[in-house]
Amino acid sequence: MNRKYFKQRFKEQEAAVDRIKVLFDLAKQEFNKHPERSSHYASLIISTAKKMKVRIPSRIKRFICMECNSLLVPGKNLIVRSIDGFMVYQCLKCGNKKKYGYLKEKKLKG
């Protein structure tokens, strides 16, 4: 493989990450009026990331349910709880739970 291939692949991956960010913004805008459209955008985010072998940015991945492919909005279809140094996100559509630790961040700040 030559260098040209890797440069092209890197540009394609950057474009995919940009597309993921745009789709996430669209999903947030459309959630109140058309929740089914916002879940379609969320599934497009997941399929784009898989196809281009790119990681979904953590600030975006936190608000997408990987089980039911829906956009998660706190207070609407997401419950956020603080339990023993973890933030627990629970989807109200499918019941899937995700845990994110915050104790390390708390120690670093304080």
How would you describe this protein?
This protein has one domain (3-109): Up-down Bundle (Single alpha-helices involved in coiled-coils or other helix-helix interfaces). It contains four helices and three strands. It has helices spanning 3-30, 35-52, 58-61, 103-109, and strands spanning 78-83, 86-91, 97-101. The protein has a three-stranded antiparallel beta sheet.
* Largest beta-sheet details: 3 strands, antiparallel
What is the CATH topology assignment? Single alpha-helices involved in coiled-coils or other helix-helix interfaces
What is the name of the CATH architecture?
Answer: Up-down Bundle
In the residues, how many domains can be counted?
Answer: 1
CATH class category label: Mainly Alpha
Mean pLDDT value = 90
Quick structural overview:
α1 runs antiparallel to α2. This protein is of the alpha+beta class.
Task: Fill in the keyword field for this structure.
110 residues, alpha+beta, Single alpha-helices involved in coiled-coils or other helix-helix interfaces, three-stranded antiparallel β-sheet, 4 helices, 15% strand, globular
How are the elements arranged and paired?
Blueprint: H1 3-30, H2 35-52, H3 58-61, E1 78-83, E2 86-91, E3 97-101, H4 103-109
Antiparallel strand pairs: 1-2, 2-3
Helix pairs in contact: 1-2
